[in-house]
From TrEMBL:
Name this polypeptide is given: tRNA uridine(34) hydroxylase
Bias kind Basic and acidic residues: ranges: 308-319
EC code: 1.14.-.-
Family annotation (Pfam families): Rhodanese, UPF0176_N
Top-level division of the source organism's lineage: Bacteria
UniProt gene name: trhO
Boundaries of every Rhodanese domain copy: 140-234
Organism field: Pararhizobium capsulatum DSM 1112
Family stated for the protein in its record: Belongs to the TrhO family.
Organism taxonomic ancestry: Bacteria, Pseudomonadati, Pseudomonadota, Alphaproteobacteria, Hyphomicrobiales
UniProt cross-references to InterPro entries, sorted A to Z: Rhodanese-like_dom, Rhodanese-like_dom_sf, TrhO, TRHO_N
Catalysed reaction equations from the record: uridine(34) in tRNA + AH2 + O2 = 5-hydroxyuridine(34) in tRNA + A + H2O
Length: 319
């Protein structure tokens, strides 16, 4: 679905592409005490310009992904950057052949990325950013411990060579994992990465607060690495899970082979689809044993409605 992805600064001009929809992923940590009062105005500007997606706003800033026409996205970004808190907002762009979202949601949150630790502020302390071109040298250094800050369903389909996988179910589990792994102090350097960068903002800030001195994180995340680093030089193995209809991307941000189980939201490989426990929209090899027959019957009814909507040329809101 996506032709390209790039990090865009406020003054950068938008290039032209064949795909009709522009997708903008953004986050910005900033003190934003008026976030609750801002929700309706932000929802209105998105609705006015036909922009869809999800934006999370909290006292610590904004995070989310939106899609629409080039003009619509430009209008929303201009509106955001007109706010003093978001004047320096940056975003990443990709293109989509179809609208990847069903609706527009602006949600109020306690955190724009949920770690659950009070007083972690990436504006005050954060790790050192490392450009993708310099990442291989850092993580190949025997004095570096490499940590994947993503969750288990993400790491299951792809990971950097030699990375430590915390196997967390949610990002909230990450702080306890760090505290319970005293071996992380055995080497002087800690390198961390995530999909697009936002989790590492908090993760590296947390590590610094825990007394780790040399803490680094991949600027732009895995996505920027896969875009910029040639496959023949890459230390990435597998695919990168993404939170949209593509499910995964590989080197050069080409769409991966994975699909999504709509019962448990786990990514599925081509081999998973051959399992006798796989039934589209109902169950997969990961969740079959965790669901009752009553659950599966409910999912079958939902899947039937999805298929009927497809035949009508519509999108089912529950899909």
């Amino acid at each position: 679905m996506t032709d390209t992805l790039k990090t865009t600064c406020p003054e950068a001009a938008a290039p032209e592409y064949d795909s009709p929809f522009l997708v903008a992923a953004l986050y910005h940590f900033v003190s934003f005490p008026r976030f609750a009062d801002f929700r309706l105005a932000l929802q209105a500007i998105c609705d006015e310009h036909g922009v869809k997606g999800t934006l999370l706003i909290a006292h610590e800033g904004i995070n989310g992904t939106i899609a629409g026409t080039d003009a619509g996205i430009a209008a929303v970004l201009s509106f955001l950057r007109a706010q003093p808190e978001f004047a320096r907002l940056e975003h990443k762009e990709s293109r989509a052949s179809t609208m990847p979202f069903l609706r527009m949601k602006v949600r109020l949150k306690k955190e724009i990325v949920t770690m659950g630790v009070e007083d972690i502020d990436p504006n005050k302390v954060v790790g050192t950013y490392v450009d993708p071109k310099d990442w291989n040298a850092l993580i190949s250094d025997p004095e570096t411990i490499l940590i994947d800050t993503r969750n288990d369903y993400e790491t299951a389909i792809g990971i950097f060579q030699g990375a430590v996988d915390p196997q967390t179910k949610t990002f909230r589990e990450f702080p306890d994992w760090v505290k319970n792994n005293t071996g992380l102090h055995n080497k002087p350097k800690i390198a961390m990465y995530c999909t697009g960068g936002i989790r590492c903002e908090k993760a590296t800030a947390f590590m610094k607060e825990q007394g780790f001195d040399e803490v680094y994180h991949l600027k732009g995340g895995i996505l920027k690495y896969l875009e910029q680093v040639p496959e023949e030089e890459s230390l990435w193995e597998g695919a990168c899970f993404v939170f949209d209809d593509r499910v995964s991307v590989t080197h050069g941000l080409k769409e991966g082979e994975h699909t999504l189980c709509h019962a448990c939201r786990q990514p599925l490989t081509l081999e998973d689809l051959k399992s006798p426990h796989h039934e589209e929209g109902v169950a997969c090899v990961h969740c079959y044993e965790e669901r009752t027959e009553e659950d599966r019957q409910r999912y079958r009814q939902r899947q039937q409605q999805i298929e009927l909507a497809k035949k009508r040329g519509e999108k089912h809101l529950g899909s």
